[in-house]
């Protein structure tokens, strides 16, 4: 056991180091390229740095990089949690309709002109409603297969997209529409320290509870019967997990809009690296998700003069990875 | 002395379906082994499921140390009863050692992860079953029989006084079947109470403790193997012409099918 424990901790530690390195690297990159020297000077002897550099670093890049790290981790952790409790390798916040549900909630809030807290409440409420619908449809059909849940999720996602379409149709084309469309494709460009802080409690609570439950998730991933025989209150604990995972997804959607693929493929990447024990796979998926979105967002803001919407990039990167996972892990439908 | 487990006039039927069993009563003490025999689909697994808590009996009482089982929390129940379900292919890629340690979950608090001591208990159980070599392998790469042994190791780690095994020998070769039956005897000698189902009446003769016999009409009788398992009772149970033969080389009775399946005329 000890050998096993050391190697898993080593993987977690190395991944954390890679994340920190990449975060510093990302700070130097952008339209205004900085050297590591500039960065060090700005971080250590800030009074010797020009106010322009300080502004770029601390007001533009730092919140955005922190946002990428937090959102990537949140989406990946919520994906790992959903995949564990549904014993289903094909579910994710996107496929269960949670992301689009939360998007509907947030878009409604934009239309109503609600303040950030109202946006969070609506995003969470609609996301939770979507996942409950996705769970209820196969139950009503008396089905419990992997495929039936995935199909239900696709249906619910479709419904949420239709509602989102309706909201766009109703939105004021001069102001609200642009916001909704841009944000539907996912972007971190509007992240400020203020809105980051306002969503942080929601993300923190969701993430913390799931981390506390990291071993329970392993037991829950064995199926209801086995979990119950092991003294797990399956119904209650699964509800807690759904609520917390939805907190994470809704919080992420409030900050950045819907960013696809991370919640689906990163949990697989984490399990490929460290094995299916959620005790390790959950924190690792958080770290890998953070690295993934940090890389994608850095590409998004440096590849061209304009900003490339994140969902476009995660789609291009995510699809081949997902196909590779389907082929190598022999996922059963 | 209070029985570890008593069932009093237990009955079960699925909603709007005929009765599976009723008026089912028996008592089990520490050190007892109850082998449940009966034809396919008669309700053996249903009975086990009622005891474990997967199904709720429609009538009657289930007492554990004189306390109604449904008053126990799921967690306390898991400390009292370990359940080895019928063999189904396990899809989890969890390592054998991690899987076995899930048996310690009833003893862990909500946010606790299993520690060194839990893993040591897991290794002890794997060693007891002679499969310690498998501990670093993903469960879904093992054969059905190996998986079954791992699941039994998990039940041992759960350290519950009552161990329930649903057809524990069904996926095992002769040698492993013997290993499991020996283990069951050893566990009973150590003070565990054991309930198992089997398709093979010879397992009941080998274990030679108590037998629960499901008649084709769902009637359930419990008694000592020697008195209950007669050729007539077994033939009736399985709706087949079965013979009991005393084999001096074995020093016990065995149950066999007649030597010709189709009579020559």
From TrEMBL, chain B:
Q: Which GO terms describe its molecular function?
A: ATP binding; ATP hydrolysis activity
Does the keyword Metal-binding belong to this entry? Answer: no
List keywords of the entry alphabetically: ATP-binding, Nucleotide-binding, Transport
- Which part of the chain is the ABC transporter domain? 5-242
Q: Which PROSITE patterns match?
A: ABC_TRANSPORTER_1 (PS00211), ABC_TRANSPORTER_2 (PS50893)
Which SMART domains does this UniProt record tie to the protein?
AAA (SM00382)
Whether Transmembrane helix counts among this entry's keywords is: no
Signal peptide stretch:
none
Q: Which PANTHER family match?
A: IRON COMPOUNDS ABC TRANSPORTER, ATP-BINDING PROTEIN, METAL TRANSPORT SYSTEM ATP-BINDING PROTEIN TM_0124-RELATED
Protein name, please? ABC transporter, ATP-binding protein
Could you tell me which species this protein originates from? Secundilactobacillus kimchicus JCM 15530
């Amino acid at each position: 056991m000890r050998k096993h424990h050391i190697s898993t901790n080593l993987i977690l530690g190395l991944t954390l180091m890679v994340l920190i390195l990449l975060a510093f690297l990302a700070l130097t990159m952008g339209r205004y390229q900085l050297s590591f020297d500039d960065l060090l000077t700005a971080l250590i002897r800030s009074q010797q740095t020009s106010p322009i550099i300080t502004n770029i670093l601390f007001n533009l890049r730092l919140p955005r990089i922190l946002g990428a790290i937090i959102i990537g981790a949140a989406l990946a952790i919520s994906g790992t949690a959903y995949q564990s409790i549904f014993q289903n390798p094909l579910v994710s916040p996107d496929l269960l309709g949670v992301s689009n549900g939360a998007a509907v909630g947030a878009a409604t809030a934009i239309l109503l002109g609600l303040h950030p807290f109202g946006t969070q409440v609506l995003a969470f409420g609609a996301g939770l409603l979507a996942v409950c619908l996705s769970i209820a449809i196969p139950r009503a059909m008396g089905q419990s297969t992997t495929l039936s849940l995935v199909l239900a999720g696709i249906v619910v996602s479709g419904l949420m997209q239709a509602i989102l379409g309706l909201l766009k149709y109703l939105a004021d084309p001069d102001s609200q529409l642009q916001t909704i469309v841009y944000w539907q494709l996912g972007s971190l460009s509007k992240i400020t320290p203020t809105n980051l802080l306002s969503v942080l409690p929601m993300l923190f609570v969701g993430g913390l509870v799931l981390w506390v439950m990291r071993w329970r998730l392993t037991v829950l991933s064995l199926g209801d019967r086995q979990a119950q025989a092991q003294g797990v209150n399956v119904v209650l604990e699964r509800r807690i997990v759904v609520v917390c995972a939805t907190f994470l997804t809704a919080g992420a959607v409030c900050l950045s809009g819907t960013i696809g693929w991370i919640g689906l493929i990163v949990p697989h990447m984490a399990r490929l690296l460290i094995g299916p024990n959620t005790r390790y796979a959950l924190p690792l998926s958080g770290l890998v998700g953070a690295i993934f979105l940090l890389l994608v967002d850095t590409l998004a803001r440096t590849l061209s003069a304009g900003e490339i919407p994140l969902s476009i990039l995660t789609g291009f990167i995510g699809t081949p990875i997902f196909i590779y996972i389907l082929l190598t892990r022999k996922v059963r439908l | 002395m209070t029985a570890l487990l008593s069932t009093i006039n237990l009955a079960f039927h699925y909603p709007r379906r005929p009765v599976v069993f009723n008026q089912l009563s028996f008592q089990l003490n520490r050190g007892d082994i109850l082998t449940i025999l009966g034809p396919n689909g008669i309700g053996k697994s249903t009975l086990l499921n009622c005891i474990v808590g997967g199904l709720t009996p429609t009538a009657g009482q289930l007492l554990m140390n004189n306390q109604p089982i449904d008053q126990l929390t799921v967690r306390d129940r898991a400390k009292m009863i370990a359940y080895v379900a019928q063999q189904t292919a396990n899809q989890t890629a969890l390592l054998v050692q991690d899987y076995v340690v899930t048996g310690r979950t009833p003893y862990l608090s909500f946010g606790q992860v299993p520690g060194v001591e839990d893993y040591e208990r897991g290794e002890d159980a794997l060693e007891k079953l002679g499969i310690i070599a498998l501990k670093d392998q993903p469960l879904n790469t093992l054969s059905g029989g190996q998986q079954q042994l791992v699941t039994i190791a998990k039940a041992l780690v759960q350290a519950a006084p009552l161990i329930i095994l649903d057809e524990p020998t069904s996926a095992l070769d002769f040698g492993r079947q013997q290993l499991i039956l020996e283990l069951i005897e050893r566990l009973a000698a150590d003070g565990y109470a054991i309930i198992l189902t089997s398709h093979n009446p010879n397992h009941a003769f080998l274990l030679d403790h108590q037998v629960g016999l499901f008649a084709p009409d769902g009637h359930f009788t419990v008694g000592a193997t020697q008195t209950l398992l007669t050729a007539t009772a077994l033939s009736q149970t399985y709706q087949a012409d079965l013979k009991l033969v005393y084999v001096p080389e074995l020093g016990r009775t065995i149950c066999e099918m007649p030597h010709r399946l189709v009579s020559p005329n």
